[in-house]
């Protein structure tokens, strides 16, 4: 589910919750059940420049295994809307995975530059 609130003319707040069955690429593990919730806030700095930040928490339960992971993701960035069909942006994500099997635990920092076309 997703809920969007137009807090002001310039600020949009989105809350989400999701539960899904996902595949795993780790040998010896069956499918996993993911339960996620999070939110994001968008601020329209200018007509074609949008700042955003958000956070998401996911609990991954690997069926047929004692492994359970908690994944926390914090994001922020800028979108530049070039026209109605193209946008460019930069995004930063911090991801922290805390697993019941220590070999799968890690923290990572990800910076992405993107260009998107849509019709």
Explain the layout of strands and helices.
Layout: E1 2-6, E2 11-22, E3 32-46, E4 49-62, E5 68-83, E6 86-99, E7 106-117
Antiparallel strand pairs: 1-2, 2-3, 3-4, 4-5, 5-6, 6-7
Short account of what is shown:
The chain is mainly β and 119 residues long. It has strands spanning 2-6, 11-22, 32-46, 49-62, 68-83, 86-99, 106-117.
Index terms:
7-stranded antiparallel β-sheet; single chain; 7 strands; 119 residues; elongated; mainly beta
Number of helices: 0
pLDDT below 50 for ≥5 consecutive residues: which ranges? none
Strand order, sheet with most strands: 1-2-3-4-5-6-7
E-strand count: 7
Distance between the termini: 25 Å
Summarize the amount of helix as a percent range.
Answer: under 10%
Structural class by SSE content: mainly beta
- Helix/strand order: EEEEEEE
Strand content: over 45%
Describe the structure.
The chain is mainly beta. Helix content is 0%, strand content 74%. It has no helices and seven strands. The chain has strands spanning 2-6, 11-22, 32-46, 49-62, 68-83, 86-99, 106-117. It has a seven-stranded antiparallel beta sheet with strand order 1-2-3-4-5-6-7, with no helix packed on it. Strand 3 (32-46) and strand 4 (49-62) form a beta hairpin. The radius of gyration is 17 Å and the shape is elongated. 2% of the residues are buried. The mean pLDDT is 94.
